[in-house]
Each structure stands twice: as structure tokens, then as C-alpha cells.
Amino acid sequence: MKKRLSILFTILFALTLTAYPSFAETSSSAGSGNNSLEFGSASSYLSLSPGINFSNSAFTFETYFKTGSVIDNGFFLGVGGGNGMSINIHSANEIQVDGFCINATIFVLTNPMQVNTWHHLAVARDAFNNETVWLDGVRASSGYNRWNTGIRYGPVFVDDRNYNGYTTGINISTACAHCNGPGDRDFNGVKMTNFRVVVGSSVYDPNSATITLPSTPLTNVTNTKLLLNVTNSSGYITDSSGTQTVSNSSVVFRSADTTVPNAPTSLSATAGDGQATISFTPGSNGGSAITNYKYSLDGTNFLDFSPSITSSPITISGLTNGTSYTVYLKAVNARGDSSASTSVSVTPSTTPSAPTSLTATAGDGQTTISFTAGSDGGSAITNYKYSLDGTNYTALSPTDSSSPVTISGLTNGTSYTVYLKAVNANGDSAASSSVSLTPLAPPVENSNTVSASNYYEPIKSVKIEGNVLKLEKKQKVIIQSYNSLTKKTNVTEQFEGQYVFSKAKPGQTISYTVLATDGTILDKLTMKTKPSVPKFAQAFSQKSALLSNNNKVAINARWKKDDSHKKYIVKITLDNGKSITASTSDPNFSIITDDTKGATITITAVGKNNLTSTVTRKI
Question: pLDDT per residue over 439-479, tens digit each?
Fold first, then answer.
């Protein structure tokens, strides 16, 4: 009964202390990133005092180690007396667990060890005597009895042996004289770090086909009997568990192959639309390739780039235009993060929004445009541009960065359509909607002195009948006329009586604007005149032997060109019903067409005001 209770207590105690940690280490990153112990030959070893008695307890042994140029058969743990336990390499794909004068068990690795390579090795027996080996987190595929190879096991061996002796060495097994011969059971150029032995509980579950490799440095878990983390050159053989005194024979301290990277330097920032692009000079990668960068906007909380970025420049998105940010970077490799870089400041911005709600106030040869400014895009508006055709934009000079803006150099009496764009350091906004206006000359006074006798009250309306304007007594208006052909504006004052609006010359257009003495537009009138009718000089058909043989005929026409004509539309209608239409600016026209008994030619003159006049002749 007492024996059963003892066994039950042992099982419960072991289960209570068993831990299965979750880390994200790799054999290479853990090994290369830590200081290590180098065993150069058979004469390089460590002695343990008083040694470790595994007895029949659950246990775990593990270490990160780097093989040499050959796979040596050295002892990770060597027996010093009694039936103490030893663990050693049997071959590139085999690990041996043995006790002096106890049958040795060989575990066959799923993946063999490679030369000059960091590996993680773990050997564990649980409270139920289940025992196995993992290399780089992968459990052995099978096992067998070394002295009777016909006895085969699966990946888990039930090891109920009592290792009632002492394990007293690393790379030495003093109780086994033949095991210490050079080239037989020794390490040559092997490095080890984070070497841990736990007796009384199992860190890993032998029934697990894989384990997660532990983060370094390894810690003193419950029941730790030996822990060599090799933290520094002065205490590299100190047992952190405090249970063993370690003596050194020619084992050498080696600094880590890799470290965390150095911080990026020389940061510079380019602002974007809701983002910032950071260029930098990378620091040393610490012997391990940079796998990503992290950024912080407060110097404390750092975020990984996703997807990862491994070189300059990097882009940080999701920022607010117009907000100033202070950016820090860290480099990341397999060992971890660098320290933070020095900071760089940036204010994201974009082009401004277009101005809105444009209104125009006409002036003498100019206009003043008032508007509502759009968003500056996070960067101050430095100027505005204007366009009179919606395509070509001119920057205001001197610069003007607020409403209203004045556009000068305009022609009085000419109607303009104005568009605006805002400008900041990032460029131009989209175009605004348009506003139309007509600049006006100031009202003309009869003399420099205004008196009751020469003052004319601005009238509110006028009456135009046909092309005649009639005014009452004491009424005065200003008439502006604009000729679209000459591009000239004339200004006339009309006092009382009537004013006859002159008709436009053929093919031309004159626009009249009638204004009160205070500049108010009272009425507008447009006079257009058709171009003169083309005068035929000749219109005839012509044949030749070559044309006749091909049933063709030439039709020719000539007419007098007039200054009122801009171009001509020529239409020839054959008696067979076919017609030909052509556009030309030349008053000499000739075309070859199907032979016909007759044809009609129509000449349409298009004036410079796009009105037309037509003449037709039968050929």
C-alpha cells in the first residue's frame, strides 16, 4: 500500500512540475546568438562536483550545440561512478542513452545532424518511464538496444532503469576508461550553450512528436540540477542552479556568432498623402540577416511592418495629413530588435482641395474673384493660379494665398470665364468650378465737376426696338461695343434722344452692352450679319479621252473670295442622285466624279461669325 501511494505521489508530483513552454526560437538563432563553450579536443572537458544522480526519476537534458567539421562521438553527459547516466552521440543520426554497466539505448534521429551546424538536443523521461530524444524539436523515429540490435523500439522507449550513480563530466566519462580515447568519445571543435539538466520532472512530454524550442537564456525551472548559460567571459562555467561546482580543463569561452542588429541611422522623411517615406542607413545586421523593421510614433510602442520590409526606404501609412509625427525605427533579425534609432519628424500632406463658391466683381480691365478656400491638404497654401480657358493656368504674381484675388490685364466689354486652382508645396489642386464676368470701364462724366446741371441719375432700364435705343430727357447711358473680328472695344456716351446700333459688316458680329452711369448693365444686344453670297466666275464640266474611257467627268467651279468668308462648303449633286460634299477655303474647286448628263453645284459661304450664305448653279 505504501509503495502504491509513493508511486502515485511521484506521478502527481511529476505532473504538477511538468511544463510545456511555447517559444519562437530556432536552433540557429539561439545557438549563434549566445555565448558558448568550445570543446577543442579530448583534453577539453568540464568536471561536475558532486555530480548528478538521475536514479529512477523523471528527467530532462537539453542544450544548444554546434557540431564541428565532423560529427564527433563526444559525451554531453559522462558517468563518473556507479550506474550513473551518460548521453553521447553514437553517429550522425543516433543518440545513445546509457548507464555504466546498464544496457545502452540508441535513438535513431528523424533528421541527421549536419557538420558545422547549430542544433538543439533534448532527452526526456517522464514519471511513467517514457523516454525519447528530440533533435531540433523533432522526435526520434525509432530506437534499439545497442548490444542486441534485434531488440527494436518505437520512438518512445520505456526506460525503467535506475541510474543510481553520478554523472560527473561533459566530454569526459571517467568511469568508462575506453570511452575517453581520442577520436572515440570526444568533441573536437564543438560549441555548447544553454546547457540544462532537470531531475525529478520532465520539461517535455515524450509522447509529443514535436516540441517548441525554448527561448534563451534557459531558466532555473523546478528541479534544475545544472544550468550553464555562458552569460559572460568571467562566469562562463558557473552553474546557475547552484548545485554543482564546475571545474574547467581547456574549455574556451566564445562570444556569440550573432547579435541583435545595430539601430538604423541618418533617418530622413518625405511627406506623402496620409503617409511618410523614411529613408535611412542600415546599421550592422549583427551577423544575422535583417528580417524586418519596426516603427514607433511615440518612441515607446513599436509596430512591425506588414508585409515585412528589409531595406531602405520604408513607408508608414494611415497617418493624418497636417499632423506632425516623430518617427523612430528598429531593425529586426533572428536575434531580436535593435535599439531605437534617433527620431525624424514629418508632417504628411497632399495637394489642396479646389476653391469653391466663386463670385466675380468686374472692374476696369480686371476682376476680383472671391471664393471659399478648400482644405490645404496639410501643407499651407502658397498661391493661386487662374485660367481663362479651363486649360492654361497662370500663377498670380506677386503671390496671393487668400480670398479675394485680382486678375488684371483683361479687356473691357469682353466676357471671361474664370477658373481657379490652389497651390501648396505638393502641387496644384483640381480646378474650381467657373465664374463668368465682363470687365467694364468706369462711367464717363461730362466734366471734372459734378453739379446739378450735369448730373444724370442712373436709370434702371432702357427700351431697345429693333436696333434703336430711345432715351427720355435727362437720361444718359454708356454704350460699349465689341467687334469679335477686330477684338476691339469702343465706348460711347448717349444723352437723351435715340441711338442706332450699327449693323455688323458681312460675316462679322458686334456685341453691344448698355450701362447706366453707375456701371449697372441695363441691356445687351448682338448684331450678326451673314457673309456675302459667293459670286460664280465659272462652273462647268470637263471631259477628256482618259476620263471618258473610264466613264468619269471633271467638275470645276471658281468664285470670288470675300473678306467676310471664313470657309466654303461645296456640294455637288449629280443627276443620277449621287452627291459629294467637301469643305475648302480655296475658291477654286475641281473634282472628278461619275459621268452624268448634268449636275448641280451649291456653294455655301461660312462667315467668320459662322452665319452662312448659299448660291446654286446648274451645270
Answer: 887 655 544 444 445 567 788 888 888 788 888 887 888 88
What fold is seen in the domain 535-618?
Immunoglobulin-like (2.60.40)
Q: 60, 205 in Cβ contact below 8 A?
A: no
Measured distance between the N- and C-terminal CA atoms of the chain, rounded to whole angstroms: 138
pLDDT band for position 432 (50/70/90)?
very high
**Annotation: CATH topology of 463-528:** Immunoglobulin-like (2.60.40)
Question: Which sequence spans correspond to the domains of the chain?
Answer: 13-254, 265-346, 359-437, 463-528, 535-618
pLDDT-above-70 percentage for the chain: 92
* Residue 7 DSSP class: H
CA distance 297 to 306: 16
pLDDT of residue 335: 84
77 vs 174: CA distance, rounded Å: 11
Q: Which three cell numbers stand for residue 102?
A: 546498464
Please give the grid coordinates belonging to residue 385. Answer: 493660379
Which DSSP state fits 90?
E
**Residue ranges of E strands in 431-507:** 435-437, 463-465, 468-483, 488-500
pLDDT band at 403 (very low <50, low <70, confident <90, very high): very high
Question: What distance in Å separates the CA atoms of residue 553 and residue 466, rounded to the nearest whole number?
Answer: 50
What is the CATH number that goes with domain 13-254? 2.60.120.200
At 546, which helix (H) or strand (E)?
Answer: helix 545-549
- Top CATH class of 359-437 equals mainly beta
For residue 23, the model assigns a pLDDT of 35
Would you put residue 242 in left (φ > 0), alpha (ψ -120 to 50) or beta?
A: left
Q: How many CA atoms, within 13 angstroms, populate the side-chain half-sphere of residue 571?
A: 11
Count of other CB atoms within 10 angstroms of residue 163: 27
Contact at 8 Å (CB) between 555 and 576?
Answer: no
13-254 with 535-618: one CATH topology? no
What is the pLDDT confidence band of residue 7, given thresholds at 50, 70 and 90? very low
Q: What class does CATH assign to 265-346?
A: mainly beta
